[in-house]
Design brief:
Layout (H helix, E strand, L loop, with lengths): L1 E7 L4 E9 L5 E7 L2 H10 L1 E2 L1 H5 L9 H4 L8 H13 L4 H7 L9
Antiparallel strand pairs: 1-2, 2-3, 3-4
């Protein structure tokens, strides 16, 4: 199990994404959020495949019918990718424990 939390300070919302690899090799996705649009994204997504986390262009994560009316800058889809990469062993648990977070800095 891998959990990633996205803090969207621009809108004041928080999204907790948990991904668990299941027996068939897919990844179950659970999203807890105080944003109704991200909650719907989580309900629509429910799972991702290995291809979804490695082929950004074809990923279900990016499909309009999955994302719904969510804002394009929302970090919750990236949180899904990060959690899935950790769970798949493609992003080292020791590395993420050491660095703790990634940031986007606004340089206006």
């Amino acid at each position: 199990m891998a959990t990633v939390t996205s803090h969207m300070r621009t809108c004041g919302k928080t999204h907790k994404v948990t991904v668990v690899m299941n027996a068939d090799g897919n990844f179950d996705v659970n999203i807890e959020s105080d944003c109704p649009k991200v909650k719907l994204f989580g309900e629509n997504l429910r799972y991702v495949t290995f291809e979804d986390i490695t082929d950004f262009d074809k990923s279900r994560i990016n499909k309009r019918e999955i994302r719904g009316d969510m804002s394009p800058p929302c970090l919750s889809p990236i949180a899904v990718l990060d959690a899935a990469w950790i769970e798949a062993g493609m992003l080292s648990r020791s590395l993420v424990k050491r660095v703790k977070e990634n940031n986007i800095e606004f340089n206006d």
